[in-house]
Design a protein that fits this description.
Elements lengths: L1 H7 L4 H7 L14 H8 L6 E6 L4 E7 L9 H15 L6 E6 L10 H6 L3 H19 L4 E6 L2 E3 L1 H6 L4 E4 L4 E3 L13 H9 L1 H9 L4 E2 H7 L4 E2 L5 H13 L6 H16 L2 H15 L3 H9 L6
Parallel strand pairs: 2-3, 3-4, 4-6, 5-7, 6-9
Antiparallel strand pairs: 1-2, 7-8
Length: about 300
């Protein structure tokens, strides 16, 4: 039944793109040549993006370049795309926590790479590469949480806007420092920030007039909670416990819920409703549904 529903659905191109994980925003028709960008980024080694996939369906993605406060090197930008592709294919996954090594989220782009990629053409190419990667990340059928410790600056601040939720420690701070560098956000951060806190507050934050410490971020609705812990290990454990409230139950249900919400954010009303219908068709009468009915647990627990 689910297969026939999906086959007969008259989905638009945008809806199909949302369904098909791995489809990028930009391609050669936009003047974007991914392999050429990759060759340039390979020239800037350092750091790593580490991924741990746990048996409970929660993954831990670590931005690991502590000597540069977890700034993104070229190699890390490439590895981030690799990890996103790996997560797209993790069918047992339900949630993901993104954090930085050594109690710092990320200081943004490695200035060594930024200086070397100094032409407008280089900037546009890197912009398209990262917008592709973070849009794919945002569309992952996983509930994602950014754990912000220390500073989240520039590109680091942009990355956390691609997560579904954000948690901060008391001493941490979010700063969009792009204006100070003579540019604007280029990884999709400005667009996503407006959707999170609204255009007026986003303008204050992006202009530098409002720096987000943990309390201000909480008051604006930028973050969900300020954690009690400050220690790196304890913070990560606290974030995992916080995430588990959303990831109980079978992965196929959690993943369908995330896809449904993603569709409602990106599509028009009719297309979003069609997506909801088709996702329901993959679950109705399925193992999780039948097991729940057999338990007669509706609304009781």
């Amino acid at each position: 039944m689910a297969g026939s529903l999906l086959k007969t659905s008259s989905m638009s191109l945008r809806t199909k793109l949302l369904y098909q994980m791995g489809v990028s925003l930009y391609n050669t028709s936009h003047g974007f040549h991914e392999e050429e960008v990759k060759k340039k980024l390979q020239q800037f080694p350092g750091g790593s993006i580490d991924l741990q996939k746990k048996d409970d369906g929660i993954g831990i993605l670590t931005l690991n370049n502590p000597s540069k406060k977890n700034a993104f090197s070229g190699a890390m930008i490439l590895q981030l795309l690799e990890k996103v592709i790996e997560l797209e294919n993790w069918t047992e996954g339900k949630g993901l926590i993104v954090h930085g090594a050594n109690n710092t989220f990320s200081s943004g782009s490695d200035l060594h790479a930024v200086k070397a990629l100094g032409t407008p053409e280089d900037g546009m190419a890197l912009c398209m590469f990262m917008q592709n990667t973070l849009t794919r990340f945002m569309r992952l059928p996983l509930i994602t949480v950014a754990l912000i410790q220390g500073w989240a600056l520039g590109g680091g601040a942009e990355f956390l806007t691609a997560c579904d939720f954000r948690l901060m420690t008391k001493e941490s701070e979010i700063r969009f420092v792009h204006k100070e560098m003579g540019i604007i956000p280029s990884w999709g951060g400005a667009t996503r920030l407006v959707k999170i806190i609204g255009s007026r507050q986003a303008l204050k934050v992006l202009s530098g007039a409002l720096k987000l410490d943990s309390q201000k971020a909480l008051n604006l609705g930028m973050v969900e909670a300020v954690l009690e812990s400050s220690n790196g290990t304890e913070c990560l454990e606290e974030a995992q416990e916080w995430l588990k409230q959303f990831t109980k139950g079978p992965p196929e249900v959690t993943r369908a819920l995330k896809k449904c919400v993603s569709a409602s954010k990106e599509l028009g009303l009719e297309e979003a409703l069609e997506t909801e219908r088709d996702l329901l068709g993959t679950l109705w009468g399925g193992p999780a549904n039948l097991e729940a009915i057999a338990r007669k647990g509706k609304f009781c627990k």
